[in-house]
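Work Package 4 report. The design task specified in the project plan requires that, given a folded chain encoded as structure tokens, an amino acid be chosen for each position. We show below one input record used in the internal validation round.
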């Protein structure tokens, strides 16, 4: 196992991505260079035991967390109704 030292903001982003339902582990690997097993180890190390168990229960068997198990029509990591970061304004109704 290789030891990668992430900055605190990177660890926060990895945890955030791991909690998101539509973000597959492959996206985390692409962005940060760590495999699913390493994400699991990082989550175990950084989270409280009860939070880690809740996350593992949530993630296990979830098809959207693994690209090969996703339906063909799911081709993005975020909701289609989510605005882009640059255009993230609250709409006035």
């Amino acid at each position: 196992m290789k030891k990668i030292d992430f900055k605190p903001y990177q660890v926060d982003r990895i945890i955030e991505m791991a909690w998101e339902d539509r973000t597959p582990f492959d996206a985390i690997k692409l962005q940060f260079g760590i495999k699913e097993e390493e994400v699991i180890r990082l989550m175990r190390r950084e989270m409280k035991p009860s939070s880690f168990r809740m996350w593992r229960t949530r993630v296990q068997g979830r098809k959207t967390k693994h690209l090969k198990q996703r339906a063909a029509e799911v081709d993005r990591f975020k909701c289609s109704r989510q605005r882009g970061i640059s255009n993230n304004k609250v709409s006035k109704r």
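The two ends are 52 Å apart (CA to CA). Validation will be extended to a larger panel in the next phase.
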